[in-house]
Automatic annotation (TrEMBL), chains A, B:
It comes from the Eukaryota. The keyword Signal applies. Belongs to the APS1/VSP family. This is Predicted protein. The keyword Metal-binding does not apply. InterPro entries: Acid_phosphat_B-like, Acid_phosphatase_pln, APS1/VSP, HAD-like_sf, HAD_sf. One of its GO terms (molecular function) is acid phosphatase activity. NCBIfam families: plant-AP (TIGR01675). Keywords: Glycoprotein, Signal. Residues 1-26 form the signal peptide.
Amino acid sequence: MVMASSQALALWVVITLTHLLSLGGGFVSCAKPCFWPSSATHDDAGCLSWRVMVEANNARGWRTVPAPCVGYVKTYMTRGQYGRDLDSVMEQVSAYVDQIAAAADGLDAWIFDIDDTCLSNLLYYQAKRFGAYDPMAFKKWASQGGCPGIPPVLGLFEALQDKGFKVFLLSGRDEETLGSCTSQNLESEGFSGYERLMMRTPEYRGQSSSLFKSAMRKQLVDEGYRIRGNVGDQWSDLQGDNVGDRVFKIPNPMYFVP
Amino acid sequence: MVMASSQALALWVVITLTHLLSLGGGFVSCAKPCFWPSSATHDDAGCLSWRVMVEANNARGWRTVPAPCVGYVKTYMTRGQYGRDLDSVMEQVSAYVDQIAAAADGLDAWIFDIDDTCLSNLLYYQAKRFGAYDPMAFKKWASQGGCPGIPPVLGLFEALQDKGFKVFLLSGRDEETLGSCTSQNLESEGFSGYERLMMRTPEYRGQSSSLFKSAMRKQLVDEGYRIRGNVGDQWSDLQGDNVGDRVFKIPNPMYFVP
């Protein structure tokens, strides 16, 4: 037992010392949640922790990118790692898709979220410096129908349809005000041939994305569809009821949707 | 629409070009899943993608750390980032714990996994160079009862008990062969005062961790407990039935348990 304790001590001295040494400038003193170091040199390590927590669904309910991480997120999104992470996730999806087949009854379904899954809002969020959600400004951006498609996701979208899966697009965007520009935007970016575009109807206004999307998925299951896969950039796309046989989390450190 | 397409092109040219340029040596040609670059310089970026996929539960069913990432995982675990990530997760748990209270009926429960949640197997996996799971060797290691405790998790474990929560330790370790050394190991590392140690009994041998742990959690819920939080290093600790009001994923790029 003494050995165990001294082992723990030795192990933790190594882990903690290297941690502390690598911090250099030390952590800023701040109220919880506080998880980034003060020194610019070491922001990246703290922001990496934060980004991984976002992807692992440990960090929830955040309203903006932490101020010390704005530059980190911009670099992440535009200098290669986001593209690399996205490609890596697509490799995992492909490996899974290779193992499954669509039955002849046409009821094997896949669900894709739209914002930052099929269509990118990077230009918008970058222009807003990854600040707080601004419903009016976002609506204006979305209504222009100019969101760029995300090519690796388009590739998957097409491959699934080629294999006989029915693809459903499920978005929390308001159908009444953004329905037609969204379908035009999808079309212009190559997302066509899908089975149904499901957007938020008036009865679901104000409801969390997670509840709204669970209700929509239940509709599909009640219609007899088997949800074989589900792709989204938010955990609220991927949790709740009838999430599907397998879910894939597309990276997104820009914003959080409950 | 033309604008949208050219925007997409411009955006993707930036993302993809920086991605390709940053690859330098290019990707190795290999069968799927293949998600790391060949050149040593750029392994870190590919291994980071892989590690984030593990934490986000996008990469599943892997049997060993990808060969090009063994050095990366060792560095991650021992040079600061693991400790930093762990502290960040503990900050998130603390922020959540601050918002909840244990009722006077004594039925508010938390669940902790043991291996690489409460007790660290880093020394074992490092000695095995993060190779494939070796049941006999692991049993030998575990039976020595010398796994170091993980101090930030011990801190949480104690804080929760101080606040009146009942803490349950839920482990896939075999009760018959590892029960007594595990409870001694926990005790020697300071994990005491918990409500119950729940380990795998003969009837659950061979069952996946996810199914076994779901069954154990159902027992607790049937006894009237409310699972307020659940902490584990594997997604199989945190998914299935009755996972709890909130789950926290402790980082672990060393191994995968289905």
